[in-house]
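Reviewer 2 asked us to include a model.

Predict the structure of this chain.
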Amino acid sequence: MTAPPRPTTTLWRPTGPVELELVRESGWRAWPPRLPEQPIFYPVLNEEYAVRIARDWNVKHDGSGYVTRFEVDTEFLRRYPVRRAGGRTILELWVPAEELDEFNAHVVGGIEVVHEFH
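Predicted model (structure tokens):
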């Protein structure tokens, strides 16, 4: 008898074309390491917030923006308190760059693109 699947939490990540290509190269399974000036990885808890960032920031700075959706083991995520970065729906998790490999190990299934802006 197999164990029931562990509960997961849906997260979104607004991203530009460079980061998205690195996710593609991982087989849609992992987020790339942070750059030295990026000490935190910020997945968000609200699709609308991710859309706003991808559409309004990534397009302006990178020429295109994407919203990805992925599932992460809920129990693992409890180590990261939810951070409010503005209004009541502007919620993020702050994952230290040095913990990103462990975070990626708790991604369940693949990372998928759900919105694209140019």
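The radius of gyration is 14 Å. The helical segments are 17-25, 47-62, 74-77, 100-105. We have added this to the supplementary material.
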